[in-house]
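Deliverable D4.2, example record:
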Amino acid sequence: MSLLDEYNSVIESKERIFNAIVADLFAELIQVTPVDTGNLKGAWTLNKTPNGYIISNSAEYADIVLDGYKIINGKSYGSKQLPQGISPIIAKYNIRLEEELKD
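Output generated by the structure prediction step:
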């Protein structure tokens, strides 16, 4: 195997790992999304770009719900179904990506 073949094999392996992690993250985000009407859960999109992927949620209230549950001045924001928001989920997948790309 030539050096170029080895390099291409490493790149392909890293792309497979990255693609699998993105797919798993996307699936988990959908799975944990709180449901009232289903609009928020159905508003997730995954788009591949030349520089990677973009995962987004187009529901107008997505930022409030996905940021976690809070009570501010006696008023509640977010969802008790997802009290910590999606930050811990994203952090978990960042760690997984770092660990799997080390090898």
